[in-house]
Please model this.
Amino acid sequence: MITIGELTLNSGFKYTIEIHEVEIFQMSILHGGSFKVTEEISSQLNKDAHEAGSWQAIQEMNIKFSHRGNEYDADIIVKDILSDYPKFKIIKIHSM
Model:
């Protein structure tokens, strides 16, 4: 099931994204997932990495979405940032 969400890059740019995988543990605890990177997002990530000096410097982002009746707002770290469907892990969940 594809879920629509909002991704905010460290540079402040916000994008509507398709979340293709959501990893939730018992009691609706969000653990991670994966999302689709569009050409627009990829282009901005390239610009951000160039300005920051490395890919590692831009791996932290924020994601917001609703899944199975639960609202999530979380800081994430993105693995394989150059992938079409990078995986993310939760760093911090904000209360909604």
User: Anything to note?
Assistant: The radius of gyration is 13 Å. DSSP finds one helix and six strands in the chain.
